[in-house]
Design brief:
It contains 9 helices and no strands. The chain has 263 residues and is mostly helical. α2 packs antiparallel against α4.
Length: 263
């Protein structure tokens, strides 16, 4: 229809009408491209919001795992230290036997946490993430994803090291697990006070347990920081918060406050 009108105007040499027709066609094409781009950007924003929501859910799940493990990790650190100190002070005897054996058994505790990362992997490979989120948020999520990968490798190495130490530690039990081999052979549990290898193993385990506890607290602070940034960006996008400010979390401490509380 438009083409036939343009041909007719050319035949009649109505150049003004020809120019107006070309301008109309060009405007239609430009508007079409703009609408397509707008629609794609809108879809990217929606997809990015869904991904951010999934990441937020995973952060909450990982945080819950961490907060469940931190008390157990603290207890393991205290128990191993207590068993070691009893040995070094020569306080292991029949009277303190039950206390020592309980601390000894608790020394085997190692908190293990597998941080969730499936939504992070989708986000990293999604084109919508690039156009549907702010550069600062993309950078924060990318850094956290790299952090999760490194932490998983580090924990695997730590567990491997722990396994070797635990194997040495529990080799001191007999087959029934009721007596310490060294004390059983000598007929006196006080002989453990003169076992420097046992004290050294307990100290090595205690050092690694404390390292794991520090890791858990650092991971907790990292998760809280990212979660707060996500909420701040979402609030800013919704027009409920000025850029650069942090939303109140209904009494929830920020990362630094949480870390101070844990310490």
């Amino acid at each position: 229809m438009i083409l036939s009108r343009i041909i007719h105007q050319l035949e009649t040499q109505n150049w003004t009408a020809v120019a107006l027709e070309f301008l109309l066609v060009l405007s239609s094409v430009v508007l079409g491209f703009q609408f397509t781009a707008w629609n794609e950007a809108r879809q990217d924003r929606q997809e990015a919001r869904l991904l951010i929501a999934r990441i937020s859910t995973e952060l909450d799940q990982s945080l819950q795992l961490i907060e469940n493990e931190i008390p157990a990790s603290r207890n393991a650190v205290r128990a191993t230290r207590a068993a070691h100190d009893m040995l070094v002070a020569g306080q292991v005897n029949e009277t303190t036997r039950e206390e020592f054996e309980l601390n000894f058994l608790r020394a085997s505790g190692l908190s293990e946490v597998r941080l969730h990362k499936s939504a992070l992997e989708v986000f990293e490979s999604s084109n919508a993430a690039n156009s549907g989120t702010t550069p600062s948020l993309r950078l924060a999520i990318a850094r956290y994803y790299g952090f999760v990968l490194i932490e998983r490798e580090q924990e695997a190495l730590l567990l491997e090291d722990f396994t070797a130490l635990f194997r040495d530690l529990f080799s001191r039990f007999d087959a029934d697990g009721d007596y310490f081999t060294t004390a059983h052979l000598r007929g006196d549990i006080t002989a453990l006070n003169h076992d420097p290898a046992l004290a050294r193993t307990l100290l090595q385990i205690n050092f690694r347990q404390q390292f794991q506890l520090d890791r858990l607290e650092y991971i907790r602070a990292t998760i809280i920081d990212l979660r707060e940034q996500i909420r701040a960006e979402q609030a800013t996008a919704d027009g409920r918060l000025a850029p650069g400010t942090t939303p109140a979390q209904d009494g929830e401490p920020n990362a630094k406050q949480g870390q101070a509380t844990l310490n």
